[in-house]
Write a structure and sequence with these properties.
With 287 residues, the chain is of the alpha+beta class. 22% of the residues lie in helices and 26% in strands. A six-stranded mixed beta sheet has the order 5-6-4-3-14-13. A six-stranded mixed beta sheet has the order 7-8-9-10-12-11. A hairpin with a 7-residue loop joins strand 5 (80-84) and strand 6.
Length: 287
């Protein structure tokens, strides 16, 4: 268990003949992780889930179709799986061992990528143990001059419009994932390195901040400040700790008041076969 969660007693369990009997769950762990290909990292993800006692995991960049997603090993580990993928790009999933209901592929008003007029698999929602969890993979933007940048801003604006209506219901909602925005200068190792680049432009940062205006709280910075969640594979970025903070969780007030802790598992960027992102975990009180 990561140091941030060390000493926390969540469950008392005994295992006999592959059946686990658990005491009452005081906390629920909800995580987000851009795994950068689930088929390449299924065993790594499974091991991480088991070691860290995670109840719900929002995954981004599965990079596979629904037919090729490795459902069986996750189901064997006790997780229900909702996945949306249409090719070798993008792809989002929600894994839950506390139930999955009301699965939603995309959201009303979600823009299509104009070059192909395709509704990309970048947003998947599911009701897990009373919490509406959304796995989000916001478009990258590429460069500020690229049409993909406009698509990114339109995508964020459309999500914000829809999310504001969801927030009005008072329901516990978590918008989790890879936002591809570094909202503050401190969220990159050297802001001067990003001159003319995406992720740090004022329009992107304003689009990100608009979710707070819609009634959401970005809980990961509040409970785990000053940490990166992504390190590029190139130029020894990870050993030099030249990272970015671009993975976040915006949550509604009814969920924020139950939030206890956030931890970012930097160790998952180490070793062979690591994703370039690491898991971000939110612990909330069970209702």
């Amino acid at each position: 268990m990561p140091a941030a969660a060390a000493g926390r007693v969540r469950r008392i369990a005994c295992v006999s003949h592959r059946t686990t009997f658990r005491a009452t769950v005081a906390l629920v762990r909800i995580a987000t992780w851009n795994v950068n290909s689930i088929r390449a990292r299924a065993e790594r993800v499974l091991g991480w889930l088991e070691r860290n006692d995670v109840d719900v995991l929002a995954i981004q960049e599965t990079k596979c179709t629904d037919e090729k997603f490795p459902f069986l090993p996750f189901e064997a580990a006790g997780y229900e799986v909702a996945h949306w993928g249409i090719n070798q790009w993008n792809g989002v999933a929600v894994l839950s061992r506390v139930g999955i209901e009301d699965v939603r592929r995309g959201f009303p008003g979600q823009p299509t990528w104009s070059e192909a007029d395709v509704l990309e698999p970048r947003a998947l929602g599911a009701l897990c143990n009373g919490v509406h969890v959304w796995s989000l993979y916001i478009p990258n933007g590429r460069t500020p001059e690229d049409p993909h940048y406009t698509y990114k801003l339109d995508w964020l604006a459309a999500l914000r419009t829809e999310a504001a209506q969801w927030a009005g219901s008072g329901a516990p909602i978590a918008l989790m994932g890879d936002w591809n925005v570094a909202p503050l200068d401190e969220d990159v190792w050297d802001i001067s390195e990003f001159a003319g680049a995406t992720h740090v432009t004022p329009p992107e940062r304003e689009a990100f901040a608009a979710f707070a205006e819609a009634g959401f709280t970005e809980i990961t910075r509040e409970l785990a400040p000053g940490k990166y969640t992504y390190w590029d594979y190139q130029k020894l970025r990870f050993p030099k700790n030249e990272g970015m903070r671009i993975d976040f969780a915006y949550i509604t007030p009814s969920l924020a008041q139950r939030a206890q802790e956030v931890w970012i598992d930097r160790n998952e960027r180490k070793g062979k076969g690591a994703s370039d992102h690491v898991p971000v975990v939110l612990e909330v009180q069970q209702e």
